[in-house]
Every structure is written in C-alpha cells, then in structure tokens.
Design a protein that fits this description.
Layout lengths: L2 E4 L7 H8 L4 E8 L7 H11 L3 E6 L23 H14 L10 E2 L8 E4 L18 H6 L7 H4 L8 H17 L7 E4 L29 H4 L2 E6 L6 E5 L2 E5 L19 E4 L6 E2 L1
Parallel strand pairs: 1-2, 2-3, 5-6, 6-7, 7-9
Antiparallel strand pairs: 1-10, 4-5, 8-9, 8-11
C-alpha cells in the first residue's frame, strides 16, 4: 500500500484529459491530488470520476486555477459564476460526493506501512510576501509587471467575501494554524498544499518575480513547528525533491501538455510519498 501524489493536471487541455483516462488502476493505494485540476467544476468531476475508480482513497486541495471564475463559462451553468469562497465550498461539496478528503475534513492517519503519519490537506493561498524586503506589498504587482509577469489570478481569482486575496490568505492561515496547534506532537504530519510553504523552494529561473503568487511567509516555519515529515506541493510545474531543515519537500506537478512527456504516461509522474523515501533529485 502506497501513498502517491500528483498535482497540476490542468484538464482544460484535451491531451491531459486523454492521458488521465489511460492511467492504470492502483486499487490498494491512496492518491494526493494537490491542486490545479482545472478551471471548472466539470474538470473536477472528470478528474474524480477517473481517480476514485483507480485509487482506494483520494485527498484533494485546491489550486489557484481551481478557484478561477471564468468570464464566459462555456457550460452556462449557474455554478460557473461562483466566486471566491463560494467557489471553494462548491468544489469541496463535489469532493464529498466522491468520498474525497479535503482541507475541511478531519485529518486521517495513514493506514499503510512505515512510520505513522497524519495526512493534513491545506488551503492557504498566497499574500505577495515572497518578494524582496525593499518592495512594499502595495507595489508588488507593479514590480512583477516590470518584467512582463502578471498572474492571471489578478483577473480571475476573486477573493469574495474577503477584500483581497491577501486577506483571504491570512484568514485561511489563522484557521489552519489553530487546527494544527491541537494535533498531537507525537505523530509526524504530511503537510499537503498547492503552494510551497517556504520561499526557498520557489526557484523560477525564467520568471523569478512570479514568486509573488507562490505562497506566504506566514508558513515558513510550519514544517518545523508542526513536526512535518514530508511537505507535498505543486504549482511551480518543476517536479523535484528538495529538503528544508531536513524535511523532505516534494513538488508533484504534471503541468501543461508541453511540459511533460506523454509517451511516459501520467503514471510515471506519480510521486511516492509513503512509505518509501526518495533521494534528492530535480527533474
């Protein structure tokens, strides 16, 4: 029995949808789905209908694409116009239809081999704090735009009912931190989030100022404070295994069709989180 992880399926792309339908079954194993399944509720339904038939248990956390509200939804459904927190809660309700665990559910103890670990899905967002100290938050997006980098979230990820994405991020971090404080310290955690929890993990050679949309400094000590044995994340489209303060950090993205090798199939991009320990590597 193994715990695998994968993120950034981006099922708005037909090639990724076709590849997902070809994924073999892993009937005894669990899967972490670490965000950016797609942009619509139909994309989430498609993914979960495939994956819950192939894995014994699926865990999901939202990515920024999942939370988008498209300006001209193709399906015309009323729920396609949901914004912000309402969109998030609709995605959670869809997960529950399929028996998928979410950040809103009780954390589960890993039932497989190896050291006991608590599986902790997170939804934390970002607050533009992954930036140089001399750049004020109010000027951060302008600073990124100087290099022609502006995340589409600025137009499609609405924070309703919060006044900003930063405010929503602060609220989510506060809520989650309160939950984590009440967990027993004797059991290590598997922290699962779409965005990296530590700024040092964000190494974007070609678009370094995109770091603004990659996480929050509010979580930079969580891997130590809450006794994490592994941190799982996606978002960067740079699959890797790295270590921060001795804690294994797994970036588990698939990515857009041009970013992964279709001849290998999606199964070759599944990352084993438990029970095995992988060596440091960058893909």
């Amino acid at each position: 029995m193994k715990l695998y992880a994968l993120s950034d399926l981006h099922l708005g792309h037909a090639l990724n949808r076709q590849a997902l339908t070809a994924l073999p079954s892993y009937p005894e194993d669990w899967l972490i789905l670490a965000g950016d399944v797609g942009e619509t509720t139909d994309h989430l339904h498609f993914a979960l209908s495939c994956l819950t038939r192939r894995f014994a248990q699926v865990l999901w956390v939202p990515g920024n694409h999942d939370l988008w509200t498209l300006p001209t939804p193709a399906d015309g459904k009323e729920e396609a116009h949901l914004r912000g927190e309402a969109k998030y809660h609709r995605l959670v309700s869809i997960c529950r239809e399929y028996g998928v665990l979410t950040p809103e559910d009780p954390y589960r103890l890993w039932p497989g081999e190896g050291t006991p670990a608590l599986l902790v899905p997170l939804f934390l967002l970002y607050d533009y704090s992954f930036r140089p100290d001399e750049i004020p938050e109010a000027q951060a997006v302008e600073w990124a735009a100087e290099t022609d980098v502006v995340c589409t979230d600025e137009f499609l990820l609405h924070p309703d009912p919060y006044p900003s994405r930063s405010a929503w991020c602060r609220a989510r971090c506060l809520l989650t931190e309160q939950r984590l404080r009440h967990l027993p310290q004797s059991v290590p955690l598997i922290l699962i989030n779409h965005f990296p929890l530590h700024q040092t993990l964000v190494k974007l050679k070609y678009i370094p100022r995109f770091s603004l949309w990659c996480g929050t400094k509010q979580t930079e000590t969580w891997h130590i404070r809450f006794s994490a044995s592994v941190v799982v994340y996606g978002h960067l489209h740079i699959p890797s295994t790295q270590y921060v303060d001795g804690v294994r950090c797994e970036e588990v993205s698939l990515g857009y069709p041009q970013q992964w090798k279709r001849a290998r199939g999606i199964q070759s991009y599944l990352r084993e989180i438990l029970p095995g320990k992988q060596e440091h590597r960058l893909y």
